[in-house]
Amino acid sequence: MRAYRDAGYEVYPIHPRQAVIEGLNAYRSILDVPGLIDRATVYLPPEITLKVLDEIARKGVGELFLNPGSESGAVIARAQELGIVPILACSIVAIGRNPDEPD
What we know:
This protein has helices at residues 2-6, 46-59, 73-81, 91-94, and strands spanning 20-21, 24-25, 39-42, 63-66, 86-87. It is α/β, with parallel strands linked by helices. The strands form two sheets. Strands 3-4-5 form a three-stranded parallel β-sheet. Strands 1-2 form a two-stranded antiparallel ribbon.
């Protein structure tokens, strides 16, 4: 989240139980976020990622990054069934940041 905020992106944290994450109001579901979402970046285990893919598809997210550890054959297959072309890469690197460097 910090990398995206520092790069000027508007960030919407999603968490089913946390109300606030790093000072931002968190949404219980991606479907609760108002408006369009250009990019979703997932850092969940594959079994949880599978559970949220339908909501991501319903929201009409433009890009879906499956960060290392969130992908699996089943996740990729389900995403493709839903019409999502998943990007299998570290989303932080995609915005020019190195996740190993301190903030």
